[in-house]
Amino acid sequence: MTDERTANDQSPWMPFENRRRARDEKREAVLRMAVQVFLEQGYHRATLNEVAERLNITKPALYNYFRSKDEILFECWALGQEQVDDLIAVINRSRQSGLGKLRALVHAYAETMATDFGASLVRFDPRDLKPHNAEKVRAAKRGIDLTFRRYIAEGIADGSIKPCDPKLAAFAIAGSLNWIGHWYQRGGSLTPDAIADEFAIRLTDGLARRSVKKASAEAAPAPRTRKPTKGENR
Amino acid sequence: MTDERTANDQSPWMPFENRRRARDEKREAVLRMAVQVFLEQGYHRATLNEVAERLNITKPALYNYFRSKDEILFECWALGQEQVDDLIAVINRSRQSGLGKLRALVHAYAETMATDFGASLVRFDPRDLKPHNAEKVRAAKRGIDLTFRRYIAEGIADGSIKPCDPKLAAFAIAGSLNWIGHWYQRGGSLTPDAIADEFAIRLTDGLARRSVKKASAEAAPAPRTRKPTKGENR
Amino acid sequence: MTDERTANDQSPWMPFENRRRARDEKREAVLRMAVQVFLEQGYHRATLNEVAERLNITKPALYNYFRSKDEILFECWALGQEQVDDLIAVINRSRQSGLGKLRALVHAYAETMATDFGASLVRFDPRDLKPHNAEKVRAAKRGIDLTFRRYIAEGIADGSIKPCDPKLAAFAIAGSLNWIGHWYQRGGSLTPDAIADEFAIRLTDGLARRSVKKASAEAAPAPRTRKPTKGENR
Amino acid sequence: MTDERTANDQSPWMPFENRRRARDEKREAVLRMAVQVFLEQGYHRATLNEVAERLNITKPALYNYFRSKDEILFECWALGQEQVDDLIAVINRSRQSGLGKLRALVHAYAETMATDFGASLVRFDPRDLKPHNAEKVRAAKRGIDLTFRRYIAEGIADGSIKPCDPKLAAFAIAGSLNWIGHWYQRGGSLTPDAIADEFAIRLTDGLARRSVKKASAEAAPAPRTRKPTKGENR
DNA sequence: AATGAATGAGCCTTCATTCAT
DNA sequence: TATGAATGAAGGCTCATTCAT
């Protein structure tokens, strides 16, 4: 896999092929390959040469699309951030209790962490960026954190969540989720969806005024509201 | 602050001063300064020159104590790992339920994460080490993970922990804790102890067959067995 | 002299000039300059900076053509070795007595020793090479030695050379020739050709069953037996 | 052998032993070890640390006896040169034909080349010395060369050697001999004496007006049928 | 748009040498 | 005399970035 690479699947510069696709398509292809290489080897060990070669182009060609290595890094991050922004926007528009929103966020965020661009949100180091961009990243991180806190605070207010310190609770939950970006390996025994399901329960159950099981249990019928996570109790 | 540095507090090579302290003391001083610089700037951006200068010595002098930059990195990690090993050993020797051990581990591990050497366990990248050492690191990480899982499994067996998937539960808890190493800043509003207290409850409450409060509540009087965490409800 | 250098004569990177010559031409130009600098200053004292500067380029530019300093050293050697291989191949194809071949080899080898690449065969130290290449060098040296011995043995067999120990005789002759690489200075009073002529006679006359002069003078039978040298006929 | 080293045989700084031997003895011990290391690894690759360690002392201790690495190199050379000077002095005082002297020189020089200090005469690079010493070396080399030429010229004058160009003949002979310093390995199949014997004949036979055998044969009584033993006439 | 070639900047590492003890 | 510790000097190598084509 490392040798064949996935160049054939991803590169718009197919050798001996038409090279007329749109500029943005190529730009994105660079980002997809770059994020992969950066995650695989680490930003500093990864060279633009490696990125370029896997795309069947040469290093200077990258400079047609990006001004610098750190700009590529930033754009990778930005794509991941966009996903999170969208996902938060959707949840914000939904009508749910604080706990519901929190769970939705945990689930969606967990899934995002299992993607390359999602992982780039937590695996890349803002200090590698120009101050200008580093600040954007930090602001966005703060934004996500605040979202977690807000959902928790909402939950406390609407009674769906037990009183607690939203700040630390948010840290705990976000930490768990962010860590997924560090250990998740595509092709492992756990699917992103399974992980997301499990985390959505696990991380919020302690906060819920009524735990999932109890809630459903008390609510009489509904023997099981949640499907058993693959591998549970294994 | 960058200029004054904290050299005066940490360096055994006080300029124009006695230089007779023991070799091991100096070796450790190098590590303390190195881990600080590495955490502050990131391993790749940090230069040995910077480390040396802050110690009032020159770069080659470092080579009296270490063979290479990556060996320094490894030794930093090793010091952190030692802390964790010790801490696990103590807990292993204790007579507690699985849940008790888990909470003890969470608490101690959280505190460790708030130290430089502790943070180095999760902020440094094993890929920067020589394969030889990288393997040691990976093995140790596996060891910690297994410890978390073991305590959970014990807890399930002894009834102190609700049935769950020990693997994912361990990931969730360890993730939360590891993340502390990324966000904790000395001098912030939260003390390591406060964080540890909170996390020890927060991360295990969802797992406990009986939550802290409920347990104490049901246990008749004993309105509260745990001290209010500093800053709780803040 | 050090300042003017001979850059103008040898460098394809003429400053402010066309820079379009072929890559191989440049690669070779690097080798020509490198062998010169290495011989002039010795491999260890010579720096790549010096080589580059004389070529009107910068040090890293050399890495476009070679992977490391020792690879350059090896390639210099290889070019000299090629010359010798060619020269041996020609002699091997010729129809001559063993003595004839030996003389031809001595002559051609002597001339080679008076060239930069030829001298590099004996002035460079294989221990400066990577084991991989060092082994190639050693093997090639053995090959040359064996060629000398073979010609001598052939000569003994065909009667053109007096019985003697081919091994030591080869050492003696090759030593004389190799030493040329150490003392020959371009621009001295002796031309390579004159040296080669003289050595071809001098080094083989003692071996010839009939010396050059005697053979032509006496032009007669005059068989002679001499006692075999210790170790001869081994 | 490399591991045990020969420290125990050569070092006056035997650990846990009396350390009171004379300064000059130590100085010489350093030189004996240094020349060995320098020959074994090459002057530049060899470090003073290595030399010191093999002597069971530390690097700075060497500076009690020598001012610099290159001074050590020079002294090694000087010791070898002394041997050659002595040997030439003896031959100069002897009453022999030019050919006789030449043969004696060849024999003795060949044997010297098989010693460490002798090899240092031809394996070390004067350019590694300070100009001051380098000049001494060059002068001495010229001296040796002139001695060869002188003996040859004497031989031509006294009729023991065929007319020839003394300069080139000297180069040829000295080259052969010098090369011994490059290929001779202690413990090989050839003893220094055997090599010297063979070279004394081989290298001069071509020059002799009458070859060894012829001379003895024609000279009727054959006062000496046996080769002159090593050091004979010395 | 793409490339081959080149550069500038910088860092790790080595080692002879010095210094205080 | 010997040593541990430290330094200064230097060189090889890497790589992001630029330039001319």
Set out the fold topology.
Four copies of one chain form a homotetramer.
Chain A: H1 7-10, H2 23-41, H3 48-54, H4 59-62, H5 69-93, H6 98-113, H7 116-123, H8 131-158, H9 166-183, H10 192-205, H11 212-218
Helix pairs in contact in A: 2-3, 2-5, 2-7, 5-6, 5-7, 5-8, 6-7, 6-8, 6-9, 6-10, 7-9, 8-9
Chain C binds a DNA duplex (21 and 21 nucleotides) through helix 4.
Q: How would you characterize the overall build of this protein?
A:
Four copies of one chain form a homotetramer. The first copy, chain A, has helices at 7-10, 23-41, 48-54, 59-62, 69-93, 98-113, 116-123, 131-158, 166-183, 192-205, 212-218. Chain A folds into two domains: 7-62, Arc Repressor Mutant, subunit A, CATH 1.10.10; 77-218, Tetracycline Repressor, domain 2 (Orthogonal Bundle), CATH 1.10.357.10. With 234 residues, the first copy, chain A, is mainly alpha-helical. The longest helix of chain A has 28 residues, at 131-158. Chain A is elongated. Helices cover 64% and strands 0% of the residues of chain A. Chains in contact: A-B, C-D. The A-B interface holds A 41-42, 44-45, 125, 127-128, 163-165, 167-169, 171-180, 182-183, 190, 195, 198-199, 202-207, 211, 229, 231-234 and B 41-42, 44-45, 125, 127-128, 163-165, 167-169, 171-180, 182-183, 190, 195, 198-199, 202-207, 211, 229, 231-234. Chain C binds a DNA duplex (21 and 21 nucleotides) through α4.
